[in-house]
Amino acid sequence: MARRVTVAVVEDQPVAVQGIRSWIEQDPLRRAEVIASGPTIASVLDGPGCHADVLLLDLELNGVLVTDQVADLCADGRRVIVYSNHDDPKTIMTVTEAGAANFIAKHESGEHCVETIIAVATDRPYVTPSVAGAMLAEEAVQRPQLSTRERTALLLWFQSMSKSSVASRMGLSEATVRQYIDRARIKFAKVGRPAPTKTALLARAIEDGLIRADEVGDYQSRASSPPPAGR
Q1: Which one of 3.50.7.10, 3.40.50.2300, 3.20.10.10, 3.40.50.150 gives the CATH number of domain 5-140?
Q2: Digit-coded pLDDT (tens) for 109-138
Q3: What is the DSSP string of 182-194?
């Protein structure tokens, strides 16, 4: 049995914490578990929550917005999912640009919450309804021009393939694939639209019409398939 994804919850409303625990416990596959919760960031990170795979962060704690702390948490290498009632497009894009791996609005379903947690922990893209809405609402003044190779590398990577599998499928080295993905990030950053995480980069690509949402899905890696006869 695969190890469960561990989750730490920073939330000052006990009822909300109980709701999150209930959603996770009701997952038929039992893929995650809450190992720590508390009303402040410090109270959670001072204990076992420090080692959680995912940090689920309410953006407003004890009446104070902690938006400015998202970047620091992400800079420490934490996978942060913002969970908030503040789901206007500007706030969503601000926290994702600060490095948050994803955003969940509190009115969204438990299924979205659980799937987002698993996706973030396993480095897979997952666009919640609130993030999709923010993408559509944002006015993109400039759109970067990606090469065909850059777009192909992104698409295969978004289809849950590892970079090594993308390299095998494209007939390139893994270093070259990384270069294509990094180059795409740089191009978005240069037009003032940074995409520091996989989900943010997917959001940008869909927003600009570079990739269609229906193109993103599980894809069998050529590297994991048996080689054709005679080779």
Answers
A1: 3.40.50.2300
A2: 999 999 999 999 998 888 888 988 887 776
A3: HHHHHHHHHTT--
